[in-house]
Every structure is written in structure tokens, then in C-alpha cells.
UniProtKB/TrEMBL annotation:
Pathway where it operates: Cofactor biosynthesis; adenosylcobalamin biosynthesis
GO BP: any one term: methylation
Domain Cobalamin synthesis G N-terminal: 36-116
Name of the protein: Precorrin methylase
Sequence ranges assigned to domain CobE/GbiG C-terminal in this UniProt record: 193-311
SUPFAM superfamilies for the chain: CbiG N-terminal domain-like, CobE/GbiG C-terminal domain-like, Tetrapyrrole methylase
Keyword annotations from UniProtKB, A to Z: Cobalamin biosynthesis, Methyltransferase, S-adenosyl-L-methionine, Transferase
Coiled coil: none
Pfam families the UniProt entry points to: CbiG_C (PF01890), CbiG_N (PF11760), TP_methylase (PF00590)
Species in which this protein is naturally found: Streptomyces dysideae
Taxonomic lineage from the root: Bacteria, Bacillati, Actinomycetota, Actinomycetes, Kitasatosporales
């Protein structure tokens, strides 16, 4: 029996929902809360208390005996947001109950007993199939005990704590072989295998599937490491192949006959050449993205054989994530950026940006920090690490593609690495949100730094923006060594805009010492601007309304008077 205790109207409403769904499993304890909890604790195997954890801890503390016999206790907060497994997680079934209650009430189950961890810390984000004694090995990783790491394939893994990688009886093994996990061993199955498939028209799915499975089995390979099936475009809709991919739970990729013809294969033949225009489908499709041919073309056992397949182990590809951290505030860092920071084993970035997110990194992350100015070197380092097969994250403030590291890095990068871009809130947008709505119509960003761009180019662009009446945000507006560029740029804009044109100046947007000011083209003192600042100059339609900078969405009224 599950005893239900609540103290408030909201709690009672949630309690009644449980009682309605589980009429035979629950008993409602009314009356003074302390008394209700004591009675329920004595009479029930489990309790759900719609009370703060603090209150419940105080009430049950004197009642606790031993974890084999105490009831499991779950607390649900008043807002119904969390179902906390408080005591008796395993023996008392509170973990399971928290999940069930969470499901029913739409509350997140909160389970803190570590052996319930579903993945090896660090490796739980990969989305790889995992086999073996995950609970024991996770425990060992968490407890800082030595854990052996056996990488049969090099694969871009996240950072692992320093206790992982020492000889030990607990073991993490990355393999695509069809082996069974030993005791205290976890097998990670990277998506390393590609199966090329050819099939005659209407080849039955059982035949295609049987062929793939026996090819993998005979070669001692695990179907759990299958990344994709590959074939020729003409067979993209071949029902047997499509259904085989579906049943295996992997995507089907296809290539043109022309692309496949260009692949060097050991067993070309005339039959596919006549049928689909390439001397090889299975081998060529499997090999097209490179890799090692583990199983050359083989035919199904049926007479006549209607399917062929070949198996390739892909070369591991390094991973370069180019991540924008946003303007500074932690809550303007996107969840995706956070996930990428935790997905990496190597981090490359400017020291001041590393400081911004250091606490989010996994222990064991290798930091390659450098000071201002070393952009090219940082870009090269990041790419070189990724090409070694590492999972690298290259960070930049705001958006990493805006006056930042993405372009130098991608100019260096070859197509043998995967590149993942994560957008960030760039300074112009962070500043605009503070100022009001200055970017409501067409706008440009112009960097006033002439360190890498000749001033003539910058000036030409400022002039074009001035003539086109476009709202302008200046990045890198002014530094100690560069003080005449901003006044010059403002003067160009002033040639086409009134001195009363609104100008927003935002310094350290979203950081602890954020400040902003709304002034005018005529009133702005450039000396008050520095490198931590962006300056947004309105166009002829921009207005100051109730202390905010607003550029109307349309200005048809200007183009068409009346
Ligand atoms: N990648 C960054 C821009 C790098 S250029 C981004 O997308 O925001 C550096 C310039 O950006 C600075 O000189 C300043 O003009 C501007 N900047 C960056 N962060 C800022 C912030 N939090 N507040 C105001 N300006 C900022």
C-alpha cells in the first residue's frame, strides 16, 4: 500500500489524481501532517508526500530504522514539478515510484542513488549502444577507482576523468567486434561499420537482411556498430533494402552510378553495369567514403541470389565543434553549446573565454588556451587536433562565426573531419535587446578594426551603409591604439543622417558590469567608447520612444508619401 500525505490545496489536488488512477494501491492519510506521516510510515510499504523535502526529512528522521525494511518515500513539491526519491531508493522502491509518479503527474523524477546511473559518466552522451555491467563500471568511474580503457578503434570521445585509462579489473572497451562483455566490463559500440548493399528488383527483405546479418556474423562483427546501409541511387526505393535499413534501425544512403564507378573495388562485374550503370554497387557504396574493406562482395545463399553486400570499417573522423558562448551571461549560453563543451576532450580558445565556461568542462578536458592575437595559431591547433581523431571544441564569445574563430578554422579544415557549428548570441543582438528594437529593419555589422582590413575597405562599407540608410552596429569600435576610426565612421553616417539620430552604446552586454546609454549622433562622445562596447547607430526612421531605441519594421510611408 502507498500512503499519500498532503498539506495544501495544490498538494491535495495532485494527491487526488494519484488516488483516482491507483484506487487499489493507495490510502489517503488526512489530519495533521506529522501524525499522518507517522501512521503511514508504520502502515505502508511506500509513501508519497506532497510536501517539501525539508519537512519530510524532519518528520521521518526519528522513524528511520534500516534500509531493508523502511518504506520508500517520495516527495512531490507543491508545483508538481519534481518527484524526489528521498529514502529507500532501491529496497523501498522509491526510485521506481518516483518515476511512476513523475509520469502520472508530469513531474521530473529526481533519483540520486548513483548505481541507477544509466551510462558511464562522460560516455553517456555519445548515443552509442552500450553493453555489459554499466552499473559497476559507472560506479568505479565515479568513485575514482582505476578503470581500464581499451580502444580498439580510435574514436573522438569526450574527456574522461584521470582514473580512466589505468590497468584495472573494471574495463571500458570500444569495439565493433561481436564479443560478449566480460564481468565488470562495458562494451561501447561506435557506429563504425558501413554495409554496401545491391539487390535485384523485388529482392525480399528477409534475403537482404539475412545476407547482411550473416556477413557481419561470419566476420565476427557486431550489428550494434552498424552505422548505415549504402547503395546506388537507382535502388533508393528498393523495398527489400529500405525495409532492411528500417529493421536494422540505420539510415540508407545512396550514391549516383557515376560516383560509384569512380571507386576502386576488388570485385567489379558486368551485371550491375548493365542494370544500374556501375560495375560495383555493394563494394563501391561501402567504400565510397573511405575505410577498410572487411568483407568483400558476397551474394545471398538463395538461388538465384538476389542480393549482394560488402562490409567496410570507416576511418574514425575527428570532430571539431565551433561553439559560440554568447555575450557573457550563463543563461545566454545555449544548451547545445553546453552539450558540445561536455562532448569534447580538447578545448581550444582564448584564455578569457575559457574562464567564462571552465566550470562546465568535464574533468580531464585538455585545455589549449592562448592569448589575444594568436587567432591563426588557434585555428590551426584546433584543426590539427581534430585531424588526429580527437573531439575538439573551439570556442568564441558571442557567435563564433562573427569576427571570430570559425572562418580561420574552416579555412584550414579538410573534409576528413566532421565540423559542427553551434550559433551563439552575437554582441549586436545582445545589445539590441538592451536598447529596445533598433534592428527592426535592415541592418549591418561593421568592424572598425583595421588590423586585418585596410581602412579604405572599411570606409567604403560605412559609406555604403550611410547612403543606403541602413542601421549600423560597430564592433571593435575603439581601442587605446585605434581612436580616430570611430569619429571618422560617425562623421560619414552624419553626412546622411540628422544629428538627432538615436545611437545606442552598450558595454559588456549581459556581463556583471553591463552598462548602456542612449544618445544621438550629434551627442555621442567617442572617448566614452572602448573595446568592450558595441555602438548601434539608427537610420533616418529610428526613434527614441519611452527611453528605448526603436526602428520601425517598415517605412513605406517614407517612400510613398500620403
Ligand atoms: N564573436 C563576437 C565578436 C567578436 S569581435 C560576437 O559575436 O559577439 C569583438 C567585439 O565584439 C568587441 O570589441 C565588442 O565590440 C563586441 N562585443 C563582444 N562581446 C560584447 C559584449 N558582451 N558587449 C558589448 N560588446 C561586445
Amino acid at each position: 500500500m502507498i500512503g499519500l500525505i498532503s498539506a495544501t490545496a495544490a498538494g491535495s489536488a495532485a494527491r487526488d489524481r494519484l488516488a483516482a488512477v491507483w484506487p487499489d494501491r493507495v490510502r489517503v492519510y488526512d489530519g495533521p501532517v506529522g501524525d499522518a506521516v507517522r501512521r503511514a510510515f508504520a502502515e505502508c510499504e511506500q509513501l508519497v508526500c506532497f510536501l517539501a523535502t525539508g519537512a519530510v526529512v524532519r518528520l521521518i528522521a526519528p522513524l528511520l530504522g534500516d534500509k531493508a525494511s523502511d518504506p520508500g518515500v517520495v516527495c512531490v513539491d507543491e508545483g508538481g514539478r519534481f518527484a524526489v526519491s528521498l529514502v529507500g531508493g532501491h529496497g523501498g522502491g522509491a526510485n521506481e515510484l518516483a518515476r511512476e509518479v513523475g509520469e502520472l503527474l508530469g513531474a521530473a523524477p529526481v533519483v540520486t542513488t548513483a548505481t541507477d546511473a544509466v551510462g558511464v559518466p562522460g560516455l553517456d552522451t555519445l548515443g552509442f549502444p552500450v553493453e555489459g555491467d554499466v552499473a559497476s563500471v559507472s560506479r568505479a568511474v565515479l568513485d575514482g577507482e582505476p578503470v581500464e580503457l581499451d580502444l580498439e578503434l580510435s574514436w573522438p570521445l569526450p574527456a574522461l576523468p584521470s582514473n580512466v585509462g589505468r590497468p584495472a579489473s573494471d574495463r571500458i572497451r570500444l569495439t565493433d567486434r561481436a564479443v560478449e562483455p566480460a564481468g565488470r566490463e562495458v562494451l561501447l559500440r561506435p557506429p563504425s561499420l558501413v554495409v554496401g548493399v545491391g539487390a535485384s528488383k523485388n529482392a525480399p527483405v528477409e534475403e537482404v537482411l539475412g545476407l547482411i546479418e550473416s556477413a557481419l556474423h561470419d566476420a565476427g562483427l557486431s550489428v550494434k556498430s552498424l552505422a548505415e546501409l549504402a547503395t546506388v541511387d537507382a535502388k533508393a526505393g528498393e523495398p527489400g533494402i529500405v525495409a532492411a535499413a528500417e529493421r536494422l534501425g540505420v539510415p540508407l544512403v545512396t550514391y549516383s552510378a557515376e560516383e560509384l564507378t569512380g571507386v576502386d573495388v576488388p570485385n567489379p562485374s558486368d551485371a550491375p553495369l548493365a542494370a544500374v550503370g556501375t560495375p560495383s554497387v555493394a563494394e563501391a557504396a561501402a567504400l565510397l567514403r573511405g575505410g577498410e574493406l572487411l568483407v568483400p562482395k558476397r551474394k545471398s545463399a538463395a538461388q538465384p541470389a538476389m542480393a549482394t553486400c560488402a562490409v567496410v570499417r570507416r576511418p574514425a573522423r575527428g570532430r571539431l565543434a565551433v561553439v559560440g558562448l554568447g555575450p557573457g551571461a550563463r543563461d545566454l549560453l545555449t544548451p547545445r553549446a553546453k552539450a558540445e563543451l561536455r562532448r569534447a576532450s580538447v578545448l581550444v580558445g582564448l584564455d578569457q573565454y575559457v574562464d567564462q565556461i571552465r566550470d562546465l568542462l568535464r574533468p580531464g578536458t585538455r585545455l589549449l588556451e592562448s592569448g589575444l592575437g594568436a587567432e591563426e595559431e588557434r585555428a590551426r591547433t584546433a584543426v590539427a587536433e581534430a585531424r588526429k581523431g580527437q573531439a575538439v571544441v573551439l570556442i568564441g564569445s558571442g557567435d563564433a562565426g562573427v569576427y571570430a574563430m570559425a572562418s580561420p578554422a574552416l579555412a584550414e579544415a579538410s573534409d576528413d573531419i566532421d565540423v559542427i557549428g553551434v550559433p551563439g548570441v552575437t554582441a549586436a543582438l545582445a545589445a539590441a535587446a538592451i536598447l529596445g528594437a533598433p534592428l527592426g529593419h535592415d541592418h549591418v555589422s561593421i568592424s572598425l578594426s583595421d588590423l586585418h582590413t585596410p581602412w579604405e575597405v572599411i570606409e567604403r562599407r560605412v559609406r555604403a551603409a550611410a547612403e543606403a540608410d541602413i542601421v549600423v552596429t560597430f564592433y571593435n569600435p575603439r581601442s587605446r591604439g585605434r581612436d580616430w576610426q570611430l569619429p571618422k565612421a560617425l562623421a560619414i553616417l552624419a553626412g546622411h543622417r540628422e544629428p538627432t539620430t538615436p545611437v545606442g552604446v552598450v558595454r559588456n552586454a549581459s556581463r556583471a558590469d553591463e552598462s548602456s546609454r542612449l544618445t544621438t549622433l550629434g551627442g555621442l562622445d567617442p572617448a566614452t567608447v572602448d573595446m568592450m562596447t558595441v555602438v548601434t547607430v539608427g537610420n533616418t526612421a529610428t526613434r527614441q520612444i519611452a527611453g528605448r531605441m526603436v526602428t520601425p519594421r517598415g517605412y513605406r510611408w517614407q517612400e510613398e508619401p500620403n
